[in-house]
Design a protein that fits this description.
The chain is 20% helix and 16% strand. By secondary structure, the chain is α+β, with helices and mostly antiparallel strands. It has a domain of 128 residues.
């Protein structure tokens, strides 16, 4: 069977067109070409704030100091007298000039006289010089023998108690050693005391001047 050349050429052309169309269809089916997505700028995460400083708890309140106790055998109102203001600037030696007014030293030993008042305020009001000490004043004289307090003499002003003797209540305590309690007896109070102190009635019955 013999083909004619023109017919053969026409067949080749038809096949070529068909192949081209099939290639376009395949391209359409593949869908659009994937493209790289643009880079998205990321917002930096803010740094977390540092933890708040922990406040240290307040320290506990200190326990209040226990109230002072009197020396063994002494009355309660003398408790803590050794921390009271001292009338004399320097310790008073035995046989001091003040004792010469009496003629003897009734309280042998090295002495200090303390008062339950502010010493400077007493000086401003003239107490112990020309004016009387105020109501409620307590004067405590301690006398040391060696290294311990062996004698305590007390003057306590209580209004109306004894106007003839400055309203002072006098009493004296003694002990023989540092471990012994203080003791007193009737003869160590009242007249035995003020019979000497009446010499100092111009300074409210007090021998020791306020040296403030």
């Amino acid at each position: 069977m013999r083909f004619r050349l023109p017919a053969a050429l026409a067949l080749v052309a038809v096949l070529t067109v068909a192949a081209a169309c099939g290639s376009d269809e395949d391209s359409d089916d593949a869908g659009p070409t994937a493209t790289a997505s643009p880079t998205t700028a990321t917002t930096p995460t803010p740094a977390e704030p540092p933890p708040a400083a922990t406040t240290a708890p307040d320290p506990p309140e200190p326990e209040p100091a226990p109230p002072p106790e009197p020396l063994p055998g002494l009355p309660a109102y003398t408790a803590g007298f050794q921390s009271w203001d001292r009338l004399n600037n320097e310790p008073i030696p035995p046989n001091s000039p003040q004792t010469a007014r009496v003629g003897f030293d009734a309280h042998l030993g090295t002495k200090n006289v303390r008062v339950n008042r502010d010493r400077d305020r007493l000086a401003q009001t003239g107490a112990g010089e020309r004016r009387p000490y105020p109501e409620g004043t307590i004067l405590v004289k301690e006398a040391r023998t060696g290294d311990f307090v062996s004698l305590v003499a007390i003057m306590r002003k209580i209004s109306g108690t004894d106007p003839a003797h400055g309203d002072w209540v006098f009493i004296e305590y003694k002990r023989s050693s540092a471990d012994a309690p203080f003791t007193t007896e009737p003869r160590l109070m009242g007249e035995l005391c003020w019979s000497c102190h009446q010499i100092a009635d111009d300074t409210d019955w007090v021998f020791t001047p306020n040296d403030a």
